[in-house]
Amino acid sequence: MYFGDGYEPLQTVKSGKTSYENRLALQVVAGFRPASWLLLSDRNRVEFRWVNGVYSTRYRNLVQGTMTSMYATSDSAHMHQGVFL
Questions:
Q1: Is 75 within 8 Å of 65 (Cβ atoms)?
Q2: Which of 4, 21, 31, 57 is deepest in the core (most CB within 10 A)?
Q3: Exposure of 47 by Cβ count < 10 A (0-12 exposed, 13-18 middle, 19+ buried)?
Q4: Mapping DSSP to helix (H, G, I), strand (E, B) and coil, where does residue 70 land?
């Protein structure tokens, strides 16, 4: 299990309008290896966001399955879910 945090200042331009966003993110990643060649992981992330000065939160979940061999690594399954609060 891994714990992480971070800060991201972002500036985006869409249709000529500039948007400013500040994010504080906390996340936990849990991994499980049912076989030597298969890694299943589940990332849970909470973002505390200020977009143009307006506060909001966002929860994100990412479930992945990764198959490995002695020659290559590939993502076999990828499922992403985002929930906006």
A1: yes
A2: 21
A3: buried
A4: coil
Distance of alpha carbon 62 from alpha carbon 42, whole angstroms: 6
Cα separations in angstroms, 69 against 16, 40, 41: 47, 15, 17
Query: Whole-angstrom Cα distance, residue 82 to residue 77?
Result: 17
Q: Give the model confidence (pLDDT) of 22-42 as tens digits.
A: 999 999 999 999 988 888 999
| Each residue's pLDDT tens digit, 42-58 | 999 999 999 999 999 99
Per DSSP, what are the bridge partners of residue 40?
32, 65
Q: What pTM, to 2 d.p., does this model score? A: 0.68
**Residues in contact with 65: Cβ distance below 8 Å, sequence separation at least 6, in sequence order:** 38, 39, 40, 41, 75, 76, 77, 78
